[in-house]
Amino acid sequence: MSDVDLDDALDAPETSSAPVFALRSQYIKDLSFESPRAPASLFTTREAPNVEVTVNLAAQRLEAQAVELAFHINVRAIADKNTLFLVDLVYAGILEIRNIADEALEEAIFVRGAQQLFPFARRVVADLTRDSGFPPVMLETMDFDAMYAAQKNRSVH
Hints:
Elements: H1 6-10, E1 20-34, H2 40-43, E2 50-63, E3 66-79, E4 82-98, H3 102-131, H4 144-156
Antiparallel strand pairs: 1-4, 2-3, 3-4
Helix pairs in contact: 3-4
């Protein structure tokens, strides 16, 4: 982690040189849902499904003061050795970033940006699975600080 206090840097009063970090827009970039055994899978499943979830984050600079942060979320539910459903979601947001030190920028995007965007991506997954006839998949709360620190430790070693 850097010596820059991220919360102090981002919560400073707004002036022309004050740091700005804001979620300006959010959207579904890509979405796929498959229920290969429907409708049978909706009423013949005898066991609670095993739900596998993977979450990846990616960021790309769009312009000098804007970054797109994207969650790629995959959910697969399996029961009776059969796939009940598959969700493939890319949920993204545009972050406005101004006057943030280079050494604090990556952490701001992958921690604070992820914290702001994740609840909306989580809701999309829950609504989609519920609206498809299955119990809603409620993604667990994620500790983006710990994930970022672990990633930094892996890249150093």
